[in-house]
Amino acid sequence: MAAYQITQSVSDPGTAPERTDPDNFDSRADDFLAVLSLWGKITTGELIVLAAQMNALSTAVNGYSTSAAASLASALVAQTAAEAAQSAALQSANATIWIGGSTYAAGAIVLDPGNSYFSYTSQQAANTGHTPNTDNGTWWELTIADTTNAINNADAKTTPVDADLLALIDSEASNVLKKITWANLKATISGADYIANQVFS
Q1: Residue 13 falls inside a structural domain
Q2: Above 60 in pLDDT, residue 188?
Q3: What's residue 3's pLDDT?
Q4: Could you tell me if residue 103 is inside a domain?
Q5: Among residues 143, 166, 146, which one has the least CA distance to residue 87?
Q6: Given this model, what pLDDT does residue 100 score?
Q7: pLDDT tens profile 24-41
Q8: Within a domain: 146
Q9: How many domains is the chain partitioned into structurally?
Q10: Beta bridge pairs of residue 96
Q11: Is the pLDDT of residue 161 over 50?
């Protein structure tokens, strides 16, 4: 938005004419009427211009207020996304690039170069020779940032799920279903990309 300010000045009408001062009445009346003329011209009068500038300033202030509110809302959304990405990044902080033939313990996190460096969590000990992105969940599962959403019971498939649920990952090894929502999937991908490329997708 353009910058707005009040630039119009208003002329001083001076001392008003008084009947008790007949000697100065005429000159003061002439001066007063001259100033009234400056104030009241239909389009260029000082008060007309002043009122227009005040209205423009008020409109601008309202616009700035609306923009500020929108910026605050965007900042809060960005902060939430950043916190989710940070959570995923911290979770993957100890991740290593997956290497075929290496042995991984249960809970180890790796970045799979065969799948855009997404992070996977080992589901069993002595995990050797299993490619994360082609495994069926027996040995590897896509790392989900929001582990508090895990459903850890045998009746998980009948448990009500969240409205924003995207999918469930079924671990055959541990009989665990994990919720995937758009939010935690984005956080997971962003965290993996950050570790691999230092760039949030």
Answers
A1: no
A2: no
A3: 62
A4: yes
A5: 146
A6: 93
A7: 999 999 988 888 888 888
A8: yes
A9: 1
A10: 110
A11: no
Judge whether 78 lies within some domain.
no
Partners of 122 in beta bridges: 140
What DSSP string describes the chain? --------------SPP-TT-HHHHHHHHHHHHHHHHHHH-TTT-HHHHHHHHHHHHHHHHHHHHHHHHHHHHHHHHHHHHHHHHHHHHHHTTT-EE--TT-EE-TT-EEEEGGGTTEEEEE-SSSEES--GGG--SSSEEE--S-GGGEE-STTGGGS---TTEEEEEEETTTTEEEEEEHHHHHHHHHHHHHHHHS---
Neighbours of 96 (CB within 10 A): 13
Please state whether beta strands 127-128 and 96-97 pair in parallel, antiparallel, or not at all (unpaired). Answer: unpaired
Start-to-end C-alpha separation, the chain: 31
Q: Which domain, by its residues, includes 120?
A: 90-197
